[in-house]
Amino acid sequence: MEYTKPLANLVEYFQKFPGIGPKSAQRMAxxxxxxxxxxxxxxxxxxxxxxxxIKYCETxxxxxxxxxxxxxxxxxxxxxxxxxxAETKDLIAIEKTREYRGQYxxxxxxxxxxxxxxxxxxxxxxxxxxxxxxxxxxVILALSPSVEGEATSLYLSRLIKPFKIKVSRxxxxxxxxxDLEYADEITLARAIEGRRELD
Length: 199
Description:
- This protein starts with a helix and ends with a strand.
- It is an alpha/beta fold.
- A 5-stranded mixed beta sheet has the order 4-3-5-6-7. Strands 1-2 form a two-stranded antiparallel ribbon.
- Helix 1 (5-15) crosses helix 2 (22-34).
- It contains 7 helices and 7 strands.
């Protein structure tokens, strides 16, 4: 049986979300249709407001409605360490551990030649500018242990070493190929604590 056109459109849009297949998209569409109209309107409005107001922080490239973001503008945070992550979702995962109180730098991706993403396509130049600040003593690389994450970490460590800044990598209690966002908070907290300096 074919969906009626408005329902088909709704299912099609939900399927565009990562990890959402046809059955999940259908469930989400039917759930939405059962919601009161006022709730659907609030949901739609929250998406529009988020899209219009959330931008990238000019300092660390975290997603935020303020510029600089809440972390960069927090004077209680340690300015001597910068934790480098691939995406904002990874920053959020580390923040949930409450173990790290330094600064961040969001690369907005990792080097991936297969996907046509080179070093110039992510926020590496901006990181190098930030580490010229004499307050920065350590850069912590917190990239997922995938082939791309490993390659990006190696590339960054080679670039940063001449600045005479300590470069460390978080220890992973995670299987290779796992994503940071799916790690539990205890594992991530231990990974931050057990970071090691790269040679």
